[in-house]
Amino acid sequence: MSTKVKVATYVVVDRDGYLLSARGHIWLDTVETYWGSVLIVVAGTPGTGKSLLGVNLSRMLKRKFTTISWIVLEKGLWLHYDAARRSFVIDDRAIIETLRKYTDYIVETHWLELFESIADSIEGVVVTRCNPVILLERLKRRGWPARKIAENVEAELTSVIAGEARALAEKGIPVVEIDTTHGRPSSNAALAIDMLRKGESSCCIDWLTILDEKKLEFLLESLARLSSGVNTA
To answer: 213 exposed, middle or buried (CB, 10 Å; 0-12, 13-18, 19+)?
Structure first.
């Protein structure tokens, strides 16, 4: 059975870097700097602002922007659709081979393991982080299934993707973490560029130590309810 998908063709942001519309691969030439002919990866838990930061990086660095999801859907690199999780299960071998062709790109993902085998093509990795309490509300507003919300908030709380990024840092690739909970997307992108240019990795945002006891207790109780399938207001 075939599945029809709608893939974007352009992206527009306002002066502060907030997304106005999105329809696919972009090339924004209203920029002042250019990075080079290598890949920059923007990774993070869903809902942490990967797309906004990636779009702003592309605008500032005169790069094309895409996401793993767009690549998978455009090129049919998926095995099947998981209705319960509302997501496609991708063909990881096929996507890895395809990614080798994506130089001069900003690529957004929440699956960093895909990039370990093409580490020599990566200039840097930006990991978007968001306060899990705020992330919880964002994902609820999106109307996601309760268990999917719990899975992603827990991943952010325990720094799952940031941990995966360290494997790339160990290969000598600069990895920087940007807290996108507050601040304009354009400012966050400028900070990421400045940190990447220094060529040094920065870590680590640890929500388990940053959040106070009451907020942690609230999160754990919320995650327990969501994991059981209860999406409370």
So the answer is: exposed
Residue 231's φ and ψ, nearest 5 degrees, are -100, 90
User: Is beta strand 175-179 parallel, antiparallel or unpaired with respect to 11-13?
Assistant: unpaired
Q: What is the pLDDT of residues 60-78, one digit of tens each?
A: 999 999 998 888 888 888 8
CATH number for the domain harbouring residue 120: 3.40.50.300
Residue 233 lies in a domain: no
Cα–Cα separations (whole angstroms), residue 49 to 4, 33, 45, 110: 26, 22, 9, 11
DSSP string over 121-161: GEEEEEEEE--HHHHHHHHHHTT--HHHHHHHHHHHHTTHH
Give me the pLDDT at residue 232, please: 61
Predicted TM-score (pTM) above 0.90: no
Domain of 190, in residue numbers: 11-227
* End-to-end C-alpha distance for the chain, whole angstroms: 36
- Domains of the chain: total: 1
Identify whether 116 is part of a domain. yes
Residue 2 lies in a domain: no
C-alpha distances out from residue 135 to 86, 180, 200, Å: 18, 10, 27
Edge to edge, the sheet with strand 39-44 lists 26-27, 64-67, 105-109, 39-44, 122-129, 175-179
For residue range 78-102, what is the model confidence (pLDDT) as tens digits?
888 888 767 778 788 888 888 888 8
In a domain, 4, yes or no: no
